[in-house]
Amino acid sequence: MDTEISGGINIAMKVPAHQYEATVAFYRDVLKLNRVTERPEEMGFVYGSNRLWIDKAAGYSQAEVWLELFTPDFDATARHLSTAGMVRDDAIEQLPEGFAGGWFFNPAGIVHMVRRPDAW
């Protein structure tokens, strides 16, 4: 493989609206994880060397976990993943125009944000 891929720092937990407050309370009050301070408008916690983002997901019946992968060359990596059979679907959550990344599904249906580390 001529593309470089590594684990990212962000984990997103998409939580149904009816479970959102209890889930946030669990990470905040039971586990006592520190809040992410660089994006206070979003619900994020320091999770070791990662960031755990908890998103209220209206219309969801169960929680989903979305993972992140980094690559210095998104276009080459996107071609590699598509050739390997990973499905890309950028319609699942809007990304900024010109964003150097996209949404892919692994064979089990887990969403992966694949992006350049500086894409944001």
Give a nutshell description of this structure:
The chain is of the alpha+beta class and 120 residues long. It is built from two helices and eight strands.
The main β sheet shows up as: 8 strands, mixed
Terminus-to-terminus distance? 26 Å
* Total E-strand runs: 8
Tell me, rounded to a whole number, the average pLDDT. 94
Beta-strand content estimate: 25-35%
> What oligomeric state is this?
single chain
Structural class: alpha+beta
Number of helices: 2
The shape is: globular
**In angstroms, what is the radius of gyration?**
15 Å
Order of helices and strands: EEHEEEHEEE
Percentage of residues in helical conformation: 10-25%
Unreliable stretches (pLDDT < 50, length at least 5) are: none
Question: How would you portray this structure in words?
Answer:
The chain has about 120 residues and is α+β, with helices and mostly antiparallel strands. The chain is about 20% helix and about 35% strand. The chain has helices at about 15-30, 75-85, and strands spanning about 5, 10-15, 45, 50-55, 65-70, 85-90, 100-105, 110-115. Strands 1, 2, 3, 4, 5, 6, 7 and 8 form an 8-stranded mixed β-sheet that branches. It starts with 5 loop residues before the first strand and ends in a 5-residue tail after the last strand. About 15% of the residues are buried.
